[in-house]
Design goal:
The chain has 368 residues and is of the alpha+beta class. The protein has 8 helices and 20 strands. The protein is elongated, with a radius of gyration of 25 Å. One of its GO terms (molecular function) is ATP binding.
C-alpha cells in the first residue's frame, strides 16, 4: 500500500491496523472510518483493545501494521502534537502547582501562541465548560468533576478537529458521571467536532454515541447506531454485552409448527410466526433464542402464548422491579413496573413479545 496515499471522505480513517506486543496480537487487521463531526464510542470490557486503538490514533503507540489518516492526512508516523487531536485521559493529568488558567494555557504557551489568542481560547473554553469561577484555583481545590472539566478544557483550547476521550468519567461517582455525561453530549452538539470516546460503561455508550464499535479481543464485533445494536445485535457476544441485565438466552432448536416454524427448548415451544420465512430458519437447526427483560410480560398477555414460571428473586429498583424467574429449566430476568410486587415462590404466567426477540445460530453465534 502506498504510504503517501490519502483518505479524504472521513474525519479519521484506520486501514488494516494491527498491533502486537511480542507474540500477543492486541489489534487485528482493524478497519474503521469515522465520519466528520461524528461521536463514536469504542465499547468493550477490559483488555478488548479499545484504549490501545485510541492510543494508536493519538500516536502514543506505534502500530505494527496498517495506516491511520486524520482529515485525509496520513499520520501513521506523525508525533502526537502534529496529528491535530486533543486528548482527555482517565486520570486528569493536571499540573498541581499551576492554576486552572495556567493548566488550560500551558500547551499553547509551549507552542508560542500569541498571548491575545491564548486569552481568547481560555475564555471560550471556560465559558463552554462553565468553569470561569475556577480559573484562579489550583487542582487540589477542585472536586473530581471540576478537575475533569478542566482536563476537557485543556483539550478544547487546542482548537482541533478530533477529540479523543479515554474513559474520562470512570473515576467519578455515579451522580457526577451522569452530570458530566450530559455536559459532554452538550459539548459535542455545540462544537460538532469529531469525538472518539473509550468506555466500558454501556450506559455512556448508548446515551452519547452516534455509533458504537463494540470490541472483543482486538476485533470490532459490531459497528452501528445504539438502537440497532440494542435491538438487532449481530452475534451472541454483542447481545449479551449490551443491556443491564443482559438479554435472556434459551438454547434449543427449530421445529416445524403447522405451516410455520417454532423454537423448542426443554419441552416448551415458542412460535416464530412473527419472523419471515427464510433459508436460515429451518427445522432441526440448533439455535439460541434471545429476549430482552423488558420484552417479557408477567400475568398480562403480550399477544402470544403464555408460559408457566416461578418467582425466584425480586429486586426493587425504584421505577422498575427486576424479577428473576425459573422457567423451563432456565433462569430468566424480567423487568416490570416498580409499583408491581411479587412474592418469592409465586406462580406466574409469562408471555413473550416474539417480534422483538432475536434468533442466533448455536454454532456460529451469528444472528439469523
Amino acid at each position: 500500500m502506498n504510504m503517501n496515499s490519502t483518505v479524504s471522505n472521513s474525519s479519521v480513517s484506520i486501514k488494516d491496523l494491527s498491533l502486537n506486543f511480542g507474540s500477543v496480537s492486541v489489534l487485528k487487521d482493524l478497519n474503521l472510518d469515522i465520519n466528520d463531526g461524528e461521536f463514536l464510542v469504542l465499547l468493550g470490557s477490559s483488555g478488548c483493545g479499545k484504549s490501545t486503538l485510541l492510543n494508536c490514533i493519538a500516536g502514543l503507540l506505534d502500530a505494527s501494521e496498517g495506516q491511520i489518516f486524520i482529515k485525509g492526512k496520513n499520520v501513521t508516523w506523525e508525533e502526537p502534537k502534529d496529528r491535530g487531536i486533543g486528548m482527555v485521559f482517565q486520570s486528569y493529568a493536571l499540573y498541581p502547582q499551576m492554576t486552572v488558567e495556567k493548566n488550560l494555557s500551558f500547551g499553547l504557551r509551549v507552542a508560542k501562541v500569541p498571548q491575545a489568542e491564548i486569552d481568547k481560547r481560555v475564555a471560550r473554553a471556560a465559558e463552554i465548560l462553565q468553569i470561569q469561577p475556577l480559573l484562579k484555583r489550583k487542582p487540589a481545590e477542585l472536586s473530581g468533576g471540576q478537575r475533569q472539566r478542566v482536563a476537557i478544557g485543556r483539550a478544547l483550547v487546542r482548537d482541533v478537529d478530533v477529540f479523543l476521550f479515554d474513559e474520562p468519567l470512570s473515576n467519578l461517582d455515579a451522580k457526577l458521571r451522569s452530570e458530566l455525561r450530559v455536559e459532554i453530549k452538550r459539548l459535542h452538539q455545540s462544537l460538532q467536532n469529531t469525538m472518539i470516546y473509550v468506555t466500558h460503561d454501556q450506559i455512556e455508550a448508548l446515551t452519547l454515541a452516534d455509533r458504537i464499535a463494540i470490541m472483543k479481543s482486538g476485533i470490532i464485533q459490531q459497528l452501528d447506531d445504539p438502537t440497532t445494536i440494542y435491538n438487532r445485535p449481530r452475534n451472541l457476544f454483542v447481545a449479551g454485552f449490551i443491556g443491564s441485565p443482559s438479554m435472556n438466552f434459551l438454547h434449543g432448536e427449530l421445529i416445524k409448527s403447522g405451516d410455520g416454524i417454532a423454537f423448542a427448548a426443554n419441552g416448551v415451544n415458542f412460535s416464530l410466526a412473527a419472523y419471515d420465512a427464510n433459508e436460515a430458519l429451518q427445522p432441526g437447526r440448533k439455535v439460541v433464542l434471545g429476549v430482552r427483560p423488558e420484552h417479557i410480560k408477567v400475568n398480562e398477555n403480550a399477544g402470544g402464548e403464555e408460559h408457566d414460571a416461578t418467582v425466584d428473586i425480586e429486586e426493587p429498583m425504584g421505577a422498575d422491579n427486576l424479577l428473576w424467574l425459573k422457567h423451563a429449566g432456565h433462569t430468566m430476568s424480567v423487568r416490570v413496573n416498580g409499583a408491581r410486587r411479587f412474592n418469592v415462590g409465586a406462580k406466574v404466567k409469562l408471555s413473550f413479545d416474539m417480534a422483538l426477540a432475536s434468533v442466533f445460530d448455536a454454532e456460529s453465534e451469528l444472528r439469523l
